[in-house]
Design goal:
heterodimer, A: alpha/beta, Rossmann fold, 2 domains, four-stranded antiparallel beta sheet, 7 helices, 14 strands, B: alpha+beta, four-stranded mixed beta sheet, 12 strands, elongated
């Protein structure tokens, strides 16, 4: 397994919604690549273009300009007809809201994706069960999503994303609806999957607690990547902010603190 | 076999599924029962012809049935018919349509003047006698029950009172009932002499009715001759032609109700799962696979509704048979197949809007919350 091999390579991605006077730029010339086995965390404020970037990389949305290459296949050159097969075979999706099919059991949710790829019957059932057992859900195979906890649902979603052995997992706020401990566990599992199975994992998140699991952290703001080295964390709200754009700064015990807003700075002063 | 997503989606919310299938079943039941009632009524219309044993019927030239017609021809021609090679037996009746009057109650009846003990009289007596004396009449028991008439009571036909000597059963149809009087009473009261309305012909064993009919047509050109089946078909056609437009309208109403119920079922089932269809699109499902799920939902709902409707109509049919109702429901395989085909067509049409909705679904929406 060549861990330096680029699995996703995006060049000059521009995405603009609307036209002329109503045009809203979401991506402004983004270059982005992910290597095999790498975990990349993309952070940034709301409306910065994170979800748009994930949609474009995931072949769900065509960019206005620029290219996305998956292995040797240029996704942006493919027709709409070809994209479902690419998504089914090469990309795995994990969502904030889990997005499991409510009428199906945990096993069936995974099995259905296998069925779509032509793995049916006993083989589909066996493979779905194995994936779920690997994620510690052997005792929950026949439970429907409404009977599962948030962490269990997300693990089913991970199993579904892995079902067709994709090269890339695209995760949109995978810990947002989970408590800290479980969120931690989910990201730890994603990292294990990346390292053990050689999957590339792209995570879009606001959650700074998962930074430690990422090989690389990117900051997206106003549709462009910024240097993460210039990022600091607001000690009150925990939000990541660019040093240069901090709304307020304070020096406490000789250490400079950066705040996202004057409110946070005041709150900090009140505690002193 | 893959996961039966269509069935799982429908059965997830059982209450909604039961209500939806119930709506479809009732709409199909409406179409089916109307169809069955009309088929039953049409079958009943020819009950006199069906139950009276004969091979051929001879009538006034150009007359093809009983309902709303008058047929009289010279009795001498009957003797000519008797002499035709292959004819075994000929019996005659006099026939007209008149009101059966009892106090303020009036009902339309075929009045049959028949020769005692011969073909053309009542075939199933309920009470009383079929051997009439002059001035006596046999009427249907259901008419008697409706008008509260008993044996020995009097009813008026041809402007004269007749004493009820017997009750038949099974002669009430959608258009009338049948009343029997003596042949000679009919002749006297109507002032007829040496004429008959219809002659029923039995053919000898080994002679084909069609061949005998050909000989009668060739030798006696003043009359019309038909087989029993042709005569019954003509009788039924008169009523089916009269009810055809009404049936078409009622079937159209049933069709529209069925389509609305099924359309709503499939649409709401799709709408409730629209986000999940988006998820499936995002993870790589093709539109054609999703369309199949929608079609399957429509097919399952339609088949379940149709099966329930057929069960209900058979129960209705059995219930009517046990009651004293004159309504006969006839549901044959042709009705079953025709209405099942119409139902499936409704199902396909009802899938159209949900399919358009799925087609327009943007898989990128799964990332929008």
């Amino acid at each position: 397994m060549n861990m330096n091999e680029k699995v996703i390579d995006a060049r000059g991605l521009v995405k603009t919604f609307g036209e002329d006077a109503t045009a809203v730029p979401a991506l402004r010339g983004v270059d982005f690549s992910v290597s095999r086995g790498e975990v990349v965390l993309i952070m940034g404020p709301s409306g910065s273009g994170k979800t748009t970037l994930l949609s474009v990389i995931g072949a769900l949305l065509k960019p206005t300009s620029g290219t996305v290459t998956l292995g040797v296949t240029e996704l942006t050159a493919l027709s709409e007809r070809d994209l479902p097969d690419i998504r089914l075979a090469h990309l795995g999706f994990i969502f904030q809201d889990f997005n499991l099919l409510s009428a199906l059991t945990a096993r069936e949710n995974v099995e259905l994706v296998l069925n779509l790829a032509g793995v049916k019957g006993e083989e589909g059932r066996r493979k779905a069960s194995e994936l779920l057992k690997d994620l510690g859900l052997g005792h929950r195979l026949d439970f429907r999503p409404d009977k599962l906890s948030g962490g269990e649902k997300q693990r089913v979603a991970i199993a579904r994303a892995l079902a067709n052995e994709p090269e890339v997992l695209l995760c949109d706020e995978p810990t947002a609806n989970l408590d800290s401990k479980i969120g931690h566990d989910i990201v730890r599992r994603l990292r294990e999957i990346a390292k053990d199975k050689g999957k590339s994992v792209v995570i879009v998140s606001h959650d700074t607690r998962i930074k430690e699991h990422a090989d690389r952290i990117l900051w997206l703001e106003d549709g462009k990547f910024s240097e993460m080295s210039a990022m600091v964390t607001d000690p009150v709200c925990g939000m990541s902010i660019e040093k240069d754009k901090a709304a307020a700064t304070l020096v406490d015990s000789g250490k400079t603190l950066y705040f996202c807003s004057k409110g946070c700075a005041k709150e900090y002063q009140g505690k002193l | 076999m893959g996961i039966a997503l269509a069935w799982r989606n429908l059965s997830e919310n059982r209450t909604r599924f039961i209500i939806s299938v119930g709506g479809i079943a009732l709409a199909i039941l409406l179409v089916l029962s109307l169809d069955g009632i009309v088929a039953g009524s049409i079958r009943q219309v020819s009950v006199y012809i069906d139950e009276t044993p004969f091979d051929l019927v001879v009538s006034q030239k150009g007359v093809k049935n009983l309902h709303m017609t008058t047929s009289f021809f010279d009795a001498d021609l009957v003797d000519k018919v008797r002499r035709i090679d292959g004819v075994k037996k000929v019996t005659t009746i006099l026939y007209t349509t008149d009101y059966l009057v009892s106090g303020d109650n009036r009902s339309v009846a075929y009045i049959i003047g028949y020769e005692q003990g011969k073909t053309g009289g009542p075939w199933m007596m309920d009470k009383g006698t079929e051997k009439l004396r002059s001035g006596e009449i046999i009427i249907d028991r259901d008419i008697a029950a409706k008008d509260k008439l008993l044996l020995g009571d009097r009813v008026t036909i041809f402007g004269r009172d007749f004493k009820i000597a017997g009750f038949t059963k099974g002669t009430v149809t959608i258009v009338n009932s049948i009343a029997y009087i003596r042949f000679d009473d009919f002749e006297r009261l109507r002032g007829l002499r040496s004429v008959v309305s219809y002659a029923f012909v039995d053919t000898k064993t080994g002679n084909s009715p069609d061949a005998v009919m050909g000989k009668i047509k060739k030798d006696i050109t003043q009359v019309s001759v038909q087989t029993k089946k042709e005569f019954a078909d003509s009788e039924r056609k008169v009523v089916s032609d009269m009810s055809a437009d009404i049936m078409k309208i009622m079937n159209l109403i049933g069709f529209l109700i069925g389509m609305a119920a099924l359309g709503l079922t499939v649409y709401t089932a799709t709408l409730a799962k629209v986000r999940e269809y988006g998820i499936l699109k995002a993870v790589g499902s093709r539109n054609t696979w999703l369309f199949r799920v929608v079609f399957e939902q429509a097919a399952i709902s339609t088949l379940a509704g149709t099966a329930i409707a057929f069960t209900l109509v058979l129960l209705l049919k059995a219930g009517l048979a046990l009651s004293s109702s004159n309504i006969l429901i006839v549901v044959g395989w042709d009705s079953f197949l025709r209405i099942a085909a119409i139902s499936m067509m409704i199902g396909v049409m009802a899938s159209a809007i949900p399919i358009i909705k799925i087609l327009r679904l943007d898989p990128a929406d799964v990332f929008r919350r």
